[in-house]
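Notes from hallway chat w/ T.B., transcribed later so I don't forget. T.B. wanted the structure written out for a chain they're using in a teaching module, and asked if we could keep both sequence and structure tokens in one place. Agreed to drop them here.
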Amino acid sequence: MSERSPVSYPTHPRPEVLTLSPYIPGKPADEVKRELGLERVVKLASNENPLGPSPRAMKAIEEMAASAHIYPDAAGFHLKTRLSRVYGIPTSQIVLGNGSDEVIMLLGQAFVRPGDEVVMGAQTFPVYKTSTLLMGGKPVEVPLKDGFLDLEAMASAIGPRTKLLFLCNPNNPTGTMTRKAEVHRLVEAVPSHVLVISDEAYAEYVGDEDYGTLLPHLREGKNVAVLRTFSKIYGLAGLRVGYGLMPEYAAALLDRVRLSFNQNALAQAAATAALDDREHIHQSVQVVEEGKAYLYREYAAMGLKAYPTWGNFIMLDTGKDCQAVFRALLGRGVIVRPTSAWGLHTCLRITIGTGEENEVLVAALKEALREV
């Protein structure tokens, strides 16, 4: 069998681009229906809110739709003002993004030069690595300890060329949480030239008083940043609304590289309204807590290892080839996320759905494990 011919580029790309692999999201439900001829598909692959958006957000979208011919507020005044009141920091320390993914990419563009190092977990959200490689930086990937970030080892991995350090808390794909004392020791140990970034996409689900958010350290003036999103508990993944809270100097630098109008008007209106819908947030947390308890019982009864989670998903060790289990579940109309891309070849990351969706998952999983 002949070797595959190298790709020819009439206009040659930057070498950094060739180091990247395209991000592979969870398969869309409509795609699975078309491919497999299924009428119903349960998607538990992308950690979306099974309750959908807040009713207040949907009303705001409807009201804003008539102004869709007008460019959005590039400064995001109303959303920033509302976030400023929520977190008690000035609007000059807030950066809005087309999802928190964009804020991660902006951090790379603003701070990482060729040869600079960025410290991160070895099994964590892949966009940290993408943003580093694109700018010619070197990802320094620190192994996890049984699914938990090893903050002591991450601090030890910092060198003279380290620019950024990314925490994912709770961590994706493992769901594990980093605690206050660990975070405090890290912040104290990190040199002042390193910006420590905590990606807290699942923070609203945590419900643990020992949660190690970086928010108190940001308010104290430390060189740290916090990333959050409206894609998870607020149910606005389709609108792509994320934001970063950071020192004023960092926010000003990101504004230099941020595209104008990067967050659309419907997204800003929906996010601003969603922040005030406490009932929707409460119901969303309740669904996850009830589903988590049910799934842990079922996984234990099947003899499977389920990692402890503080997010809206659970990483499950099936003890079998995760791609084979993924395909067997797909054939039964259940989409989950295999973790082989993270080097975890027997695990699945599975979103916690509604009670009915969780029951469908468990029944399909029992059949799939017998088949594989």
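Follow-up for T.B.: The first helix runs from residue 29 to 36. Might be a good example for the class.
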